[in-house]
Write a structure and sequence with these properties.
The structure is a homotetramer of 496-residue chains.
Chain A lengths: L5 H9 L5 E3 L2 E2 L10 H13 L6 H4 E3 L6 E3 L8 H18 L6 H21 L3 H15 L3 E4 L22 E6 L2 E12 L6 E4 L14 E6 L5 E5 L3 H8 L15 E12 L3 E4 L5 H38 L5 H26 L2 E2 L5 E2 L2 H26 L2 H4 L3 H4 L5 H7 L8 H16 L2 H7 L5 H10 L3 H11 L7 H5 L8
Parallel strand pairs in A: 1-10, 5-8
Antiparallel strand pairs in A: 1-2, 3-4, 6-7, 7-11, 8-9, 9-12, 10-11, 13-14
Helix pairs in contact in A: 1-2, 4-8, 4-9, 5-6, 5-8, 8-9, 8-10, 8-14, 9-10, 10-14, 10-16
Chain lengths: 496, 496, 496, 496
């Protein structure tokens, strides 16, 4: 087995028959479309980083299935040390691309599927775990990239799947056949879905008895029959269609890229089905996915804030204000938040535990805390960046104006900043600020991604151990005897 | 004299020879260009509101110069009552358009120019105030719209105008001739500049002795020879070029619209020159403009937050979550912030004072406080809106996908929300959320507009009356005798 | 009629038989008790300010009942102008004392009682309004101070009054007799109750049918038979008992002073009963009281923050750090918040309206917004003050150590700050910081006072006019026709 | 060697001749004084926890000097694992006492002294490290508690030590003799100093050439001749003097306890001198102390917030409001902040490194971030606690009123909360809330302790690696070639 390079990956896409629509048109060479190209480039970075000698310890790992070196994106962590390395991998990747590498949903889905199918087999005597491992070996051996496919369209959010006007508003098994299952539904906010090799498809919430048709876990190639990817329609995509390269801001890796993925009666062979109707395992499956995804999101948020800092500081320098106390104070606050988000991820990894399957899971409470913190911090950082950058990040002319034979000279003359910095550099940096601070990418990847804040809050409240905390309060103020303290606190793990 | 209608205004633009560039092209019928059309439509609203019987008391006023009814945008307030009406006018206008009506910079520039030229004449025996009033009568009589032209490009911000590598980085008088002055320079962040009739041009900061060439105040038609408008290049503009009408979100009034305005040796006749070299009046001129602009910005910010609330609440209803406590809490917080920003504007107006010229000015401290508050609140509101709206505001497909004969049916089926609300409505509302919550318009109009937050902070510290406050502290803790209290606090106005 | 002085007021207390308990003891000369003396001194300030020629326009008013000049604390505002003057009076009083003048609950209770008894009479043909006015004339003529008595002990807050284990957990009429009613219950958080002349007693929430016994409004002297005041037990009170004068911090006006007021079968003559069983008017009564109290709380919060600023700035100067950017930034933030809270009060007053009774009421939404803002801001200000003051505000030795013959010299030597400032001054200022920033006074007067934040939030949500806001959103994104805009927005008052 | 119990510790204090003044009086049996007793009790907890079989793995350690089991408070961590255990020890201790165990300054001072004297010896050939280790063995063998003595009184903070009016405003060596050095000065904010066995005395900032007399590090028993402890004078201490036990709130461990420690010509034998004039090592010494102290402060802050949660939740239950959404939301926010602060400490420990001396140091950036986060969070948590607790935490009567034969019955009747909870419990819990949420203890231990926030901010800015971040920004927007990415980011450690 060999680790793919970015180029290998690009070539592999050309062989796929993935169906992708953008702005009302079916695109043939989707990997070359201006709206999808940035996603291809950034996934390629994930492949190339595995070949970088400085980073290989973080970006690759030894497979516990094959003993071979694999890309960490398709590896299963079995220790705190491995998970901490992944945090570093992700911060590095986010920081150096200003974007999302798209594979984390897959990695996290692989982790949660591994330990949960193990549990299912242990309880039910099924062979899901083995099927899953066979599939995972195939992924590792061929170094494929995987999309974790979670979020259903959900319709009326106050209703359960079976109560919806349309039963397909949550993806479900519409038929079971000898050769496999047939599924129908649609998944939204699918980051990078169209440029992945495989989809690992989840239920999007814990299912209850009576909702068996929705309790399914399976894998399917992205170009399987019946799968349609409809690309997002955002302003940042619009800029990709009409802007000059300068206008893109983050020129190569650009806008985050999501698709709505339609599953219109897709056939999934049984060997790729890893749960089918076992509702009792969906809670763990979904919770574990969410937990790991939130744990790792700390690091990618941190990396993005690092970029926010870089742009803000560069513009402050170009504008001649980098040494003003209020600028330094804002940079400090951004650095504080980048580090704090990262710290939450590291701590969740450090204080995790190994499941019977061998899969290492991060601490659940800290993972949720970290994601919530990151979502709050990235918004505040963005605002601080805007404050530092100044109005030109929003009002600078088009790249084509700058390159225009007649009016370009005015821009050259009048958008000059401090001496020694070419106007073009300042203009490019404003464009990067425009892109990073205003494009909607942070909404789906950093804020709504891995669940809106309210989901984390519900988790945090649930894990707050209020009985213990009120008991200590009662002892301190003399309602209960102090000897009680010894009885309630036998184990540190009860504290947090 | 008659008040123009929106249609009158549009017809008047067609007669102008304003030079406008967009994305590297000179556009002939600029008022019809997709990137400028929204600005034209929204300015037209300002004209039409003056004819609305429900709102005329707020949107029109009686000119103190002519005794005629004029649009409040070109009127000078001479009392708290008038200024409070203007606050209402602006909140109304912002709220009902989701945008900026572009005339406030002009109105505020008119106010500050009126009282400051009055002061200049009183001190120097000049006739600037009379010249200015003649021009203002012309504006009122013809019901023209005016752009307050303030912000220079400024180059290296740590340097004074004369220290820059290029003396034209602050607009200046390059020559004085018999028939007028010749000016050169460039102004940025000019909201709606290209669709205004007139430019009232300011220095952008207090000028010192030796900087006389920069201390000039004058008026000039927007289509005067030598003036070039270069339109912003933003993602929201890109969407105007390639999107379906649905994709615009705020369909008619759309993206905020700014231009960079080049003054390349423009001739200004003497009767339109209202200051020329009197550096000693530039501090008041600029401070008063900023103060009024900040005072009124409270109301437009409030109106925008009202829109943020409307979209968030509509989506919460379409998603079936409007009654969840955390949603109600967020709506409450947004309403709190909308009302608070408005309150600051009203209070600044209520506690203002009349200058010797008759022009009524708002309280300086509260005006700065209000602007700072609004800038903080609009960002927090935006974030709350994003939290409520959910990921589809960032990941929904293009309008053309929805209207596509084949894949449109999938979107119709799968993006259905609560029963009874058509998918199209939900999709349109997501597009409005995408536009309102992510476009860069709030950056220049609400955050950087009327000066970045640090400018308001400097003003607030300067006005904090720390000597009085420390004296009271010393009396309370026994360092100074209590009889001192009577001596220091003779007048309420010292408190604030 | 003559306006009392502070001395007159003190003499009047000596004639009262008010029952007061402090720390388990019944105190005879309650007005001289170290824990109550500060309250007496600060109420005296309210009397003296009416004689101060600089402030009389704010601190006195012309009674609409008698045409005489009265202390504004017992006056009824009938215009925005009058209410704005009261805001100034309160900011002034708070700022110059670092405390609460205790009469606002009375003033606010007078306002709400006046307009609501007017409404009751208009609807029911009763004579409550006349009775009330007779009582008010008595108060004004004798220049008495009045406590607004609102908050019941409430027991289990999830239950209605009649559902409680003890029906007296909300104050109620236990018997109606010829000579009057007999009431029983207890009120908590009664600021300054023990040093007031009169209690004007309210129900503490809107009562429903079946809760008639709780729907009563009446006035009673503070020393009536059956009334017992039990003084708070706080750390700040403890300091009053064992500290040196230096240790008090705010030496004369000191700690805020509350009592729990027991009504143990108190007889109230009919002419002092202003509602008795008319549950349908309790909602307005309570809402109006809360609204006015919140409106005015903006100004007293602002005045307190002014004191927080004074102490912080003084200590920064004594420590030699006043010019550091981060100190100036914190002072700026505190000034911002003081001004913003005040602005909310002014705006609520400016945008109020006159009721049929002639009583002028502030805007309900803005009053609630202002109170919420003030509660948030005073906490943040306190924290900023702590940051500036430094650790010695919490760790400085006792005044008696400083005055000790042997160890006093060490303190003199080692707690010296910048040259030229005596150590004693610095020490006194630290003590004032300790008092202002840590005593629990802000909890009941500024945070929980006039209702906890959640109450204001419920009000704000209720007043948010979401139907209008969602309608505008629907028009902007093309769901409804733009002509609809004209239909929905006929009156500015609908906006806010 | 045996580990002391709490009782052993108490007995050991009785043998000391420590000089302590409280409220102007020299106290003989200082360990029994009501203001110092809580400190003695809480230090005793630290000793007893080492005997608790559930916690011994966190609260004890194996000495790297002697191989014996020692209390972790006097141990030197040599790995991430050990430091993570200490984080757990401290969170546990804070949480179960609602206070500070006072030994952390000593532990942290021991760590920094160990590695820095090692470095000094390596560079200069001195024997400080050996002297220090001898002393540390003595401490470990006798299980003594140590106060890290850092903060000088500092006088005018804008001046260096030698520029002060009094050279002793920073502690200094006033004479070097054969038998040792003589030092003079005063240290403030000395948490628990009077109840410690030993003082390990530091310079309080990095010293420069010419400031040799201030560059000294030494150990001295707390009862050495010339040392005087002057106890703080706070309101919480006042309550200890006049309150009933109920009023203390946190009955046993009560108020945090600090002293000002005077060093009036104290003789220190040479074997207890660990630096003397080597200014070049003071920067590392102080920085490392601050870093470790900040790292560990994350956990004690977390433990305190846990207590804040316990009290708030208990009161919410007693008041019948625990299930209201806004209460749950506030509890969630507090839990979020408690966990986040803890996470920062854990991450700083996990990502630390071993110094040549073998001492393990936490990550410097994350340690500073964690302390800053904790200081912000504890204040916000306190405010949330106040919001939940309600006004009675500030206005409840004295314990002696409750126990009073006549009026006690009113309190019993009227302060009843939900059925089934005795009034006394509710009252006790309000007292605990009063103590925890308003006493000044959090000011010196959690906010100003280990340096005010501005110090952490300066550290964070200094460590922000802005050159790397701006370089990445330049590459992303096309100013620099993408190949550059490989050159700049060779090591993950450069990222953070």
């Amino acid at each position: 087995m060999t680790l793919k390079t970015g180029e290998d990956y690009k070539r592999s896409l050309a062989k796929m028959k993935t169906v992708v629509y953008v702005r009302g048109e079916k695109v043939d060479r989707f990997y070359d479309h201006p709206c999808l190209k940035p996603a291809v480039e950034i996934v390629a970075v994930g492949y190339d980083l595995a070949h970088n000698p400085h980073h290989a310890s973080c970006t690759t790992a030894v497979s516990h299935l094959t003993g071979e070196i694999v890309n960490r994106f398709v590896n299963v962590a079995t220790s705190a040390e491995e998970l901490i390395k992944r945090e570093k991998q992700i911060r590095l990747a986010s920081f150096t691309t200003g974007g999302c590498l798209y594979q984390c949903t897959g990695t996290d889905a692989i982790h949660a599927a591994a330990c949960t199918t193990y549990d299912a087999d242990a309880a039910l005597g099924t062979d899901y775990y083995q099927r899953f491992n066979e599939w995972l070996k195939y992924i590792q051996t061929n170094d494929l990239c995987v999309n974790g496919v979670i979020t259903d369209v959900k319709g009326d959010r106050s209703k359960r799947p079976t109560e919806q006007v349309n039963p397909d508003l949550f993806l479900r098994v519409v038929e079971k056949r000898k050769d496999g299952i047939i599924v129908r539904g649609a998944k939204v906010h699918q980051s990078g879905a169209a440029v992945m090799h495989e989809h690992l498809v989840y239920p999007c919430q814990a299912m209850r008895q009576g909702e068996e048709q929705y309790a399914t876990l399976f894998a399917i190639p992205a170009d399987a029959k019946g799968i349609i990817h409809i690309h997002q329609g955002t302003s940042a995509d619009a800029m990709r269609l009409v802007g000059d390269e300068m206008d893109f801001g983050n020129i190569k890796y650009g806008a985050s890229s999501t698709q709505m993925t339609i599953f219109d009666n897709v056939v999934v062979p049984w060997e790729r089905v890893f749960l089918c109707g076992e509702t009792q395992f969906t809670r763990d499956l979904v919770e574990r996915f969410g937990r790991i995804h939130r744990c790792v999101s700390c690091s990618c948020t941190s990396g993005w804030i690092d970029d926010f800092i870089g742009v803000a500081q560069a513009l402050a320098e170009y504008n001649g204000v980098a040494n003003l106390p209020h600028i330094k104070d804002k940079i400090t606050q951004m650095t504080f938040m980048s580090g704090r988000a990262f710290a939450c991820g590291i701590a969740a990894a450090a204080l995790g535990y190994k499941t019977p399957s061998g899969v290492y899971l991060p601490d659940r409470l800290l993972s949720n805390i970290g994601k919530l913190d990151g979502a709050l911090s990235i918004n505040e950082s963005r605002q601080l960046g805007i404050d530092i950058a100044g109005g030109l990040m929003a009002t600078a002319p088009w790249g084509k104006d700058y390159k225009h034979p007649e009016i370009g000279k005015y821009i050259e003359e009048f958008l000059q900043g401090v001496e020694g910095v070419p106007t073009e550099h300042r203009l490019r940096m404003f464009k990067l600020a425009h892109h990073l601070y205003t494009s909607s990418g942070i909404v789906e990847t950093k804020i709504q991604g891995s669940g809106p804040s309210q989901v984390q809050k519900v988790n945090i409240y649930h894990l707050a151990n209020l009985a213990l905390k009120t008991k200590v309060a009662r002892i301190l103020c003399g309602i209960e005897a102090e000897e009680e303290m010894g009885n309630v606190l036998k184990d540190f793990s009860e504290i947090a």
